[in-house]
Amino acid sequence: MCSSKTDSENLILNQLEETYRELLENDSAYCIDVEKTLETGALFLVFDIRGRAKCERLEEYFSLFIDIVEKQNLSRPGRQELDNRFKKALKEKLEEQTRSKKSSKYAKDRQRMAYTDDKVRSLLADLAAADNKLLVNGLGILVKDTDQFLSSTEGMDGQTGAEEFRKILEEVTISDKRSPADSTYQYLKADKTVPTGFAKAASTGSVDLSGLLNPKVMNKAATSTGRKFLKRFMRHFKKVLCEGSDSPYENFKHSRVTQAALPTTIATTILTTGFSIDTFWYPLAVYLGLLTVRTGLETVCDKKPIARFRHRP
Questions:
Q1: Residue 129's closest CA among 63, 60, 70, 212?
Q2: pLDDT tens-digit map of 73-115
Q3: Are 280 and 200 in contact (CB under 8 A)?
Q4: What distance in Å separates the CA atoms of residue 37 and residue 74, rounded to the nearest whole number?
Q5: What is the CA radius of gyration of the chain?
Q6: Dist. CA 141–CA 147, nearest whole Å
């Protein structure tokens, strides 16, 4: 008789567990407060600011289900086992959701990085023939342009990378105190003749740097700013560029990256690890990447020269 009752209760437990798992499949990815649920082991739904569940139908289903559970008059051991089954099912579901989200994020990141690499390669190809003086001058103009874009665009001050950019620029302005007035960033900032709008155009996906390749844009203050910014950038980003098994330096040293691919690798690293892959950073990152290669990555990293660096572009 006791065995029959146990068998009957087990059947009820199996049915309730099956129903519970079915309920978890009902748009639960959008309805369950994952953090609270994992923390407590009990089901927590997400609520909006009005105190209503985002998925009211799911909330209603679970309320009805709980009523059904309460009416089963399960024994204390049976109720404990059911709670354990629910927690296990819930944990498995949330782990599945987490894996799915991570997989989806990874796929999106890979897709975006492929776009970033292609765009960076294209921009670098346009700059390949430019001499170093023109590139340093262009970097100075892009520093001013990026600064103006961050200052004039709402919400940009808290943007990823903006703080690091501001730190480097602040060091440039401090060093300007020892420079002639017409070689300072403030002088460049007040100069209305230098081209602008590169970061703004890049933010819409339209990156055209041809305006920086005309020798007529050569400017004493821009060249001074570009040189100072590059020097301080290399110091700030030394760890990103030089340290760690996946750094550009280590990848090049161990022949995982070729000389031809090095500018793209460095520019992409600057975007993904230093600033961000928002497109308005592309012009600045491309110039910094190319000038880093032309300086010599072993110089930036304070390393012994790598043989392949001897024939710099």
A1: 212
A2: 778 788 778 777 777 777 777 677 666 555 454 445 444 545 5
A3: yes
A4: 24
A5: 29
A6: 10
The token pair that represents 150 in the structure block: 């961050």
> Which residue numbers in the chain have pLDDT < 50?
1-4, 29, 48-54, 103, 105-107, 109-111, 113, 307-313
Q: Extract the tokens encoding 302.
A: 């304070």
Q: Which two tokens stand for residue 211?
A: 């305006």
Do 135 and 94 lie in one domain? The reply is no
Q: Which residues contact 52 (CB under 8 A, 6 or more apart)?
A: none
**241 with 266: CB under 8 angstroms?**
yes
Output the pTM of the full model: 0.63
Query: Which of 255, 230, 245 lies closest to 309 in space, CA to CA?
Result: 255
Q: Are residues 51 and 192 in the same domain?
A: no
Spatial separation of the C-alpha atoms in residues 230 and 288, rounded to whole Å: 7
Tokens describing residue 134: 């023109």
Look at residues 87, 102, 117 and tell me which one is the last residue of a structural domain: 102
Question: Is residue 227 in a domain?
Answer: yes
Helices (H), 128-206: 132-152, 162-175, 185-190, 198-203
Cα–Cα distance measured from residue 33 to residue 10, given in angstroms and rounded to the nearest whole number? 30
